Predict the structure.
Amino acid sequence: METVKQHQVHGGTLRYLTHDSATTGTPMTLSVFVPGGEGPFPVLIWLSGLTCTEDNFTTKAGAYAAAAAHGVIIVAPDTSPRGEGVADDPAYDLGQGAGFYVDATEAPWAKHFRMETYVVEELIGLVDAEFPTTKARSISGHSMGGHGALTLALRHPHLFRSVSAFAPISSPTRCPWGEKAFGAYLGPDRATWEAHDAARLIEGGVGAGCYDDILIDQGDADPFLVEQLKPELLVAAGAAAGQAITVRMQPGYDHSYFFMASFIADHVAFHARRLMA
């Protein structure tokens, strides 16, 4: 990986990096914060939402004071492959900036849009090879990235100690964002979509017994709450399957990074306790 720029923050080092991805066939970008000291350190992977790059969380979430205090590396990758020759769509919720953390099977997306494999194989391997990690890791994210964090943690529980999310798309098979993206990336067979739906996975017992709790923060003033996010479906799935899920409805908070900045320290602490147990 090539370091594009570097900053000191809260006694640690923040790097913006780029590399040529064998998985997506494109350059990919990410940021990595490493606390001060020799390490090794556990890792928290952060997955961002629609339209975001690696920069949104990095500059807006205010996560690095908590990460430094707990001794946690934070990795924030881009949300999709990008560049000339990469399929795209004029809408904000499909194509570049909207990878949905799945491996697309349909043309024209399948050639480059392989974000599940990118995160769980290539990204993790690169970070462990190039940074002082303990190889213990957790995962979190926001909105589309909250969906990604939940589904990747449930589908690959051997890779993660814990999972949390801010305002996740809880059941993409039952909301317009998910139906549009899954139809494009995965094709018309809705039965195949359910393998990438957090509520459906929990209902089906996927990842059962792997996580003592799943932490969700959701603002009750979020304009996407009713139509797109539907946290009540996660609550119902957890109750049916016996999976502990803590959903904290935060009065007055919306979908923005002001919301995440208000509670990100809680999430870093939640993961740190499990990463260092």
